[in-house]
Amino acid sequence: MLSTFNLKLAIRNLVKNKLYSGINLIGLSIGIAAVILIYRIVTYEQSFNKNFNQYDRIVRIVRADKNKEGGTFYTAGVPIPAFEVLKKSIPQFEASAKIREAWPTLLIPNPTGGVPLKKFNLEKDKVAFFVESDFFNVFDWKWLTKEDSKSLDEPNTIVLTRSIAKKCFGTIEASLNQFISIDNLNPYVKVTGVVEDPALNSDFPISYFISYATFLAHPEIYFYGSQWGSTNSNDQFFGLLKSKDQFSAANAAVATVGKSEYKNDRVAKEHFIQPLSNIHYNEEIGTSGGHVVDKKKLMILSFIGIMVLIMACFNFINMANAQSVTRAKEVGIRKTLGISYGQLMSNFLLETSILVGASILIGIGFAFLSAPILQKISSVPIGISLFTGNSFVVFLGMLFVIISLLAGLYPAVVLSSFQPIKIFRSGFENSIGSGTSLRKILVVAQFVIAFGLIISTVIAWSQLSFIRSMDTGFNKDLIYSFSFNNDSSSRAKLNTLKNQLKSISGIEKVSLSSDQPSSGNTWSSNWSMNNTKEDSPFSVSLKFCDEDYQETYKLKLLAGHWLQPSDTPREAVLNRTAMKRLGITNLDSVIGKDIRLGDRSLQLVGIAEDYQSHSAHEPLEPLLMSTRKEYYFITNVKIRPNNIPKTLAAIQNAFDIQFPEQVFEGKFYDKEIERFYEADTQFTALCKSFALLAIIISCLGLFALASFAISRRIKEIGVRKVLGATTQNIVQLISKEFLIMVLIAFGIAAPLSWFLMNNWLQDFVYRIDISWWMFAVAILLVGMIAYFTVSIQAIKAAWTNPIKSLRTE
Question: Which of 46, 258, 313, 489 is the most exposed place for a label (fewest CB within 10 A)?
Answer without folding.
Answer: 489
